[in-house]
């Protein structure tokens, strides 16, 4: 839209610009958000995966950690209390931190880490962002267990620019090590070799039925037919880009990194570590007498060793009460029913295609959004 102003005659463009400035600024200042308070107690927690019980560092006894939910324009005050024998800091991944750089969180970059027995209050405002982001520890490899969703809803009264979802579900990818991840990175730094790879990928902390001793730790997404679900994807894996797909279902990408994108359909997502994306899932019109696998595994082209395993979760249609008895018979034992086909681990053409599409549609959408804002500001005069 900048181009349109430049190409119009000088006087009207100056006039239009000042008019827009006049009507946009009050909008920005009046829509002040509320202050939301959270407390994060960082403690040890026993967790068992793949038949290994470990003491991990976790927030408020939860793995993955608690959800932060706020609206665009809200202020967040998050008190982080460190009860463990490690220095720690929390990064609010993707938050722009306009004029609050010290609240960003990377240890030794924007702050000294929070030491054992100490606390720190992160104080920042969410400006001009809405969608899904996440938070995680930002020192050494503590982010392997210290992470959780940061959900930013649009301002009050502002709808999503897509079908209102029936339900919203965060889907967080992570990695699980049977060993202590701190020992893994310490060893790698000492030897100079690549760090040992993870033993599993996880969906919402659960490795799923394709790993040994893991079927009971499977993420299940229970859905009703003929509904639209908003899936809030977060890749909190340490270093791996991941392909993801749900058997027999198409996904519609509507947002990436807290920026709306012009919606596009795909059977497979590619999500880089640290990236987030919102996706609509339209469920089938009739209850299919089946469950569906959703799987993720990495996209890799390098030569080093990597975790090439596959995490699976299950998409399950909820039965009506009439068929309840049948529902109890559909168990993990009867799997697999339908499995998605993911691209080969080294499918660079898919990866390039997907990233280019995402980037160009995000740019297009932000142009359209700002154009819409300007025209509505103008027509309201
Ligand atoms: C974890 O398990 C160990 C060994 O069973 C136990 O001593 C410890 O208290 C547990 N820690 C927590 C936080 O529950
Ligand atoms: C913890 O942080 C303090 C302050 O930055 C530093 O002096 C200390 O060496 C750190 N401890 C460890 C184990 O890194
Ligand atoms: C948070 O920051 C705002 C603005 O910078 C300030 O007015 C407020 O007092 C701070 N709150 C706390 C609890 O530090
Ligand atoms: C890394 O893997 C090697 C080979 O399997 C093993 O000997 C070593 O103990 C592992 N390191 C850690 C920290 O688990
Ligand atoms: C699972 O266990 C079986 C039998 O113990 C073994 O052959 C197989 O390699 C294991 N699979 C994985 C993924 O660890
Ligand atoms: C799922 O897809 C497979 C392979 O394309 C097809 O054979 C099967 O009928 C589909 N099932 C459902 C319930 O859509
Ligand atoms: C649903 O599956 C059950 C168990 O596999 C089968 O007995 C039943 O006939 C199926 N119903 C339909 C409508 O396909
Ligand atoms: C995964 O990696 C292991 C160990 O490097 C290798 O033996 C196996 O063939 C690989 N599997 C796939 C599907 O690439
Ligand atoms: C469920 O399974 C049990 C035993 O496995 C069987 O007795 C029962 O008839 C099944 N119910 C349905 C509705 O298929
Ligand atoms: C991808 O890996 C396969 C083996 O799994 C290999 O045959 C193929 O050449 C690789 N493609 C690229 C572009 O590296
Ligand atoms: C790349 O995207 C184009 C346009 O969306 C599509 O026609 C083509 O099949 C895609 N190629 C791959 C390898 O996915
Ligand atoms: Cu981060």
From TrEMBL:
<keyword id="KW-0186">Copper</keyword>
<dbReference type="GO" id="GO:0048046">
    <property type="term" value="C:apoplast"/>
</dbReference>
<dbReference type="InterPro" id="IPR034285">
    <property type="entry name" value="CuRO_2_LCC"/>
</dbReference>
<protein>
    <recommendedName>
        <fullName>laccase</fullName>
        <ecNumber>1.10.3.2</ecNumber>
    </recommendedName>
</protein>
<feature type="domain" description="Plastocyanin-like">
    <location>
        <begin position="168"/>
        <end position="318"/>
    </location>
</feature>
<comment type="similarity">
    <text>Belongs to the multicopper oxidase family.</text>
</comment>
<dbReference type="GO" id="GO:0046274">
    <property type="term" value="P:lignin catabolic process"/>
</dbReference>
<keyword id="KW-0479">Metal-binding</keyword>
<dbReference type="Pfam" id="PF00394">
    <property type="entry name" value="Cu-oxidase"/>
</dbReference>
<keyword id="KW-0052">Apoplast</keyword>
<keyword id="KW-0732">Signal</keyword>
<dbReference type="InterPro" id="IPR045087">
    <property type="entry name" value="Cu-oxidase_fam"/>
</dbReference>
<keyword id="KW-0964">Secreted</keyword>
<dbReference type="GO" id="GO:0005507">
    <property type="term" value="F:copper ion binding"/>
</dbReference>
<keyword id="KW-0439">Lignin degradation</keyword>
<dbReference type="InterPro" id="IPR034288">
    <property type="entry name" value="CuRO_1_LCC"/>
</dbReference>
<dbReference type="InterPro" id="IPR008972">
    <property type="entry name" value="Cupredoxin"/>
</dbReference>
<keyword id="KW-0560">Oxidoreductase</keyword>
<dbReference type="Pfam" id="PF07732">
    <property type="entry name" value="Cu-oxidase_3"/>
</dbReference>
<feature type="signal peptide">
    <location>
        <begin position="1"/>
        <end position="31"/>
    </location>
</feature>
<keyword id="KW-0677">Repeat</keyword>
<dbReference type="GO" id="GO:0052716">
    <property type="term" value="F:hydroquinone:oxygen oxidoreductase activity"/>
</dbReference>
<dbReference type="InterPro" id="IPR001117">
    <property type="entry name" value="Cu-oxidase_2nd"/>
</dbReference>
<dbReference type="InterPro" id="IPR011707">
    <property type="entry name" value="Cu-oxidase-like_N"/>
</dbReference>
<feature type="domain" description="Plastocyanin-like">
    <location>
        <begin position="43"/>
        <end position="155"/>
    </location>
</feature>
């Amino acid at each position: 839209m900048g181009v349109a102003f430049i190409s119009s005659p000088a006087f009207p463009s100056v006039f239009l610009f000042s008019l827009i400035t006049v009507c946009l600024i009050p909008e920005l200042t009046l829509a002040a958000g509320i202050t939301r308070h959270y407390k994060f107690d960082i403690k040890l927690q026993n967790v068992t995966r793949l038949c290994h019980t470990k003491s991990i560092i976790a927030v408020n006894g939860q793995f993955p950690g608690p959800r932060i939910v706020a609206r665009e324009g809200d202020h967040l005050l998050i008190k982080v209390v460190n009860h463990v024998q490690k220095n720690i800091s929390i990064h609010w991944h993707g938050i722009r931190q306009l004029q609050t750089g010290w609240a960003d969180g990377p240890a030794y970059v924007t702050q000294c880490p929070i030491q054992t027995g100490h606390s720190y209050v992160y104080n920042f405002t969410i400006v001009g962002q809405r969608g899904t982001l996440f938070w995680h520890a930002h020192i050494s490899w503590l982010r392997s267990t210290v992470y959780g969703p940061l959900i930013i809803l649009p301002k009050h009264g502002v709808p999503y620019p897509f079908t209102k979802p029936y339900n919203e579900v965060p889907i967080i990818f992570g990695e699980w090590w049977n060993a202590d991840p701190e020992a893994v990175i310490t060893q790698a730094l000492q030897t100079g070799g690549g760090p040992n790879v993870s033993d599993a990928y996880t969906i919402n902390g659960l490795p799923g039925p394709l790993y040994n001793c893991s079927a009971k730790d499977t993420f299940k997404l229970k859905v009703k037919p003929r509904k639209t679900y908003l899936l809030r994807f977060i890749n909190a894996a340490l270093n791996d880009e991941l392909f993801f797909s749900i058997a027999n279902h198409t996904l519609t990408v509507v947002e990436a990194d807290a920026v709306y994108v012009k919606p596009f359909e795909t059977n497979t997502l590619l999500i880089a570590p640290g990236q987030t994306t919102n996706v609509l899932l339209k469920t089938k019109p009739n209850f299919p007498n089946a469950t569906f696998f959703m799987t993720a595994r990495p996209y890799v082209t390098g030569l080093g060793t990597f975790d090439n395993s596959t995490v699976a979760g299950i998409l399950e249609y909820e039965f009506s009460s009439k068929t309840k008895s049948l529902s109890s018979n559909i168990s993990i034992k009867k799997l697999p029913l339908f499995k998605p086909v993911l691209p080969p681990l080294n499918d660079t053409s898919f990866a390039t295609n997907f990233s280019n599409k995402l980037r160009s549609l995000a740019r297009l959408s932000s142009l359209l959004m700002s154009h819409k804002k300007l025209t509505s500001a103008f027509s309201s005069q």
